[in-house]
UniProtKB/TrEMBL annotation, chain A:
<keyword id="KW-0472">Membrane</keyword>
<dbReference type="InterPro" id="IPR000515">
    <property type="entry name" value="MetI-like"/>
</dbReference>
<feature type="transmembrane region" description="Helical">
    <location>
        <begin position="138"/>
        <end position="157"/>
    </location>
</feature>
<feature type="transmembrane region" description="Helical">
    <location>
        <begin position="286"/>
        <end position="307"/>
    </location>
</feature>
<protein>
    <submittedName>
        <fullName>ABC transporter permease subunit</fullName>
    </submittedName>
</protein>
<feature type="domain" description="ABC transmembrane type-1">
    <location>
        <begin position="103"/>
        <end position="307"/>
    </location>
</feature>
<feature type="transmembrane region" description="Helical">
    <location>
        <begin position="187"/>
        <end position="210"/>
    </location>
</feature>
<feature type="transmembrane region" description="Helical">
    <location>
        <begin position="34"/>
        <end position="61"/>
    </location>
</feature>
<feature type="transmembrane region" description="Helical">
    <location>
        <begin position="231"/>
        <end position="255"/>
    </location>
</feature>
From TrEMBL, chain B:
<dbReference type="InterPro" id="IPR000515">
    <property type="entry name" value="MetI-like"/>
</dbReference>
<keyword id="KW-1003">Cell membrane</keyword>
<keyword id="KW-0472">Membrane</keyword>
<comment type="similarity">
    <text>Belongs to the binding-protein-dependent transport system permease family. CysTW subfamily.</text>
</comment>
<feature type="domain" description="ABC transmembrane type-1">
    <location>
        <begin position="60"/>
        <end position="258"/>
    </location>
</feature>
<keyword id="KW-1133">Transmembrane helix</keyword>
<feature type="transmembrane region" description="Helical">
    <location>
        <begin position="59"/>
        <end position="85"/>
    </location>
</feature>
<dbReference type="Pfam" id="PF00528">
    <property type="entry name" value="BPD_transp_1"/>
</dbReference>
<dbReference type="InterPro" id="IPR035906">
    <property type="entry name" value="MetI-like_sf"/>
</dbReference>
Length: 317, 269
């Protein structure tokens, strides 16, 4: 289409510089696309992908005194470059009971906490999805609000709640019940994970539940199913993508959790995030810490793949 | 239909579980007693103590600066990444790129922190940069994981964007760059604001990654709080928590009111 008369708006003066910049760059073979991609790609390459490679490299070194406190992988001797790799850190992971126990107990704690979160979060998500329109946004906001308040401070708030002379025990005392020991137990860690990760469970569940076609429930009821039956054979299977996405969003970060077990757990609460932390800060064994991190990555890779599939399903619906 | 007594009761219990610890913390921040949970009268003394603690104030100021810088870098990088992922259908290394963008979302903090520290140490011995660790390294680390969050927020806004507006601008002779600044950017502005705020909050909140990549003399607020809480009961943390919760609640309230005021025209239709 050709313009028959000069457009008066937009003013052409502002148009030129951008075009000129682009034309000049195009001459050197740089397209706009490349520029858009370059900055984030380079940043993430340098500060995300390469660090993981560095961790892998250092996990194959050994601890030594000096700066940095690990042996060099490459060394030059008599003009030849030598590559020295140590598998001792990995062998240690399998032979030392501490690490195996820590991985198993992290998975167990994260799994149990995830199931409790699902049991607490599902009715909440369902109630929000079924709530009248004007209530729904307010309730959702109430779920998201704690997410914006500090994670650390919320865990701290729990310590005041569950301590020996804390709020719960004071209330129980009013009824003449002996104070319960809650702090520094695995129980406290479960409560901590459920409390802090509940929003991550509720939001994907809500997203799937709110999209369910209500005529399916009516059909099920018309065919004579009781509410519980309808829930078990219609609602629950249809909300499976939300259940998986929510569970993975709780389970994956819970495995590597450091703050919750250190503030709420006891000395016998063994979690791999804490082991890595101690290996690094207390024992100053950087190569061992790196090996723990690599093994931890392997443990979370499968859940991450599950999560991606479930998220795809949640979004598609 | 399941509109019995079970759901409302379960939801009410769930919400009280979410809010009871926070509410009790706020109440006890006004407690005069040193023992956090024994009420002995209303007092503002912990707030006074908080504002006389130079370590706390210094850490708070450092955290705010880091959060603002990290969120701003992440905003630029995350927006560019989102534009690339939504607008460029196919390019070399797309799978790797989208993997790199979203992986920090699910990566355990301890691994991210350790990986970045080991990188910084290796870089320092190879090229002499960054010299030592402190604010700069924390900003880089925070910007890296915040980029992923900004990208998710901007991506969802970009994908329900009416492409014909951009096409119209291009048909009228605007260059892609100009189209981006004059058409795309104003439309995705709300997502940019919430992306920045999300990055800011996440950076302010991070304890684990900052602990790895900080050096002596650069303790962020969560690091100071963590060491205080670990040492024992400190009522001034209650006061600090109450202030933070208050600011967040006001911010969310303001955002909600703004949204409700601007929405009715569209939402009611």
């Amino acid at each position: 289409m050709t313009a028959t008369h000069e457009p008066t708006y937009p003013p052409p003066r502002r148009l030129r510089p951008w075009n000129a910049v682009e034309r000049r760059l195009a001459k050197v073979g740089i397209t706009g696309r490349m520029l858009v991609l370059a900055a984030p790609a380079l940043w993430l390459l340098v500060f995300f992908l390469i660090p993981l490679a560095v961790v892998f490299g250092i996990s194959l070194a050994t601890k030594q005194f000096g700066r940095p406190p690990y042996s060099a992988l490459l060394s030059t001797e008599d003009g030849t470059v030598q590559l020295t790799l140590h598998l001792s850190n990995y062998i240690r992971l399998f032979t030392d009971n501490l690490y195996v126990a820590a991985y198993l107990s992290s998975i167990r704690i994260a799994a149990i906490a995830t199931i409790i979160t699902l049991i607490v979060g599902y009715p909440m998500a369902y109630a929000i999805a079924r709530a009248p329109d004007r209530w729904r946004n307010i309730l959702l906001m109430l779920v998201i609000l704690p997410f914006f308040t500090s994670f650390l401070l919320r865990v701290y708030a729990l310590t005041g709640f569950m301590r020996g002379n804390g709020v719960i025990n004071q209330v129980l005392g009013l009824f003449g019940i002996q104070p319960l020991v809650m702090m520094q137990t695995d129980f406290a860690v479960y409560v901590g994970i459920v409390y802090t990760y509940l929003p991550f469970m509720i939001l994907p569940l809500y997203t799937t539940l709110v999209k369910l076609d209500t005529s399916l429930f009516e059909a099920s009821a018309d065919l004579g199913a009781k509410p519980l039956r309808t829930f078990l054979s219609v609602t629950l299977p249809l909300s499976l993508p939300g259940i998986i996405a929510g569970s993975m969003l709780v389970f994956i970060p819970a495995i590597g959790e450091f703050v919750i077990p250190s503030l709420l757990g006891g000395p016998e609460t063994l979690m791999i995030g804490r082991v890595l932390w101690d290996e690094f800060f207390t024992n100053a064994n950087w190569p061992r810490a790196a090996a723990v991190a690599m093994a931890m990555l392997l443990v979370v890779v499968v859940p991450i793949m599950l999560l991606q599939r479930a998220q795809g399903a949640v979004v598609e619906k | 239909m399941r509109r019995g007594w079970f759901l409302p009761i379960a939801a009410a219990l769930g919400f009280s579980f979410l809010y009871a610890p926070i509410v009790s913390l706020v109440i006890f921040s006004f407690n005069e007693n040193r023992l956090v949970t024994v009420w002995s009268g209303f007092s503002l003394k912990w707030y006074g103590e908080l504002f006389r603690d130079p370590q706390m104030l210094g850490a708070a100021w450092l955290s705010l600066q880091i959060a603002a810088l990290a969120a701003s870098i992440a905003l630029v990088l995350g927006t560019l990444a989102a534009v690339a992922l939504v607008r460029f259908r196919r390019f070399k290394g797309r799978t790797l790129f989208s993997g790199m963008v979203s992986a920090p979302l699910v990566m355990p903090d301890v691994i991210t922190g350790l990986a970045l520290l080991l990188l910084f140490v290796a870089m320092e011995s190879l090229i002499g940069w960054p010299r030592g660790r402190g604010m700069l390294t924390i900003v880089i680390a925070h910007a890296t994981f915040c980029t992923a969050y900004v990208c998710v927020v901007v991506q969802s806004r970009l994908s329900d964007f009416d492409r014909s507006l951009e096409e119209a601008a291009m048909d009228l002779g605007a260059s892609p760059l100009r189209t981006f600044f004059d058409v795309t950017l104003p439309i995705i502005a709300p997502a940019l604001v919430s992306g920045w705020l999300l990055g800011f909050t996440l950076s302010l909140d991070d304890l684990v990654i900052a602990s790895f990549v900080s050096g002596p003399g650069s303790s962020t607020l969560p690091m100071v709080i963590f060491s205080k809480v670990r040492l024992g009961v400190s009522p001034d943390v209650n006061a600090l928590a109450t202030i933070i919760i208050g600011i967040v609640a006001l911010g969310v309230l303001a955002a909600t009111i703004i949204q409700l005021r601007s929405k009715p025209k569209k939402a009611r239709a």
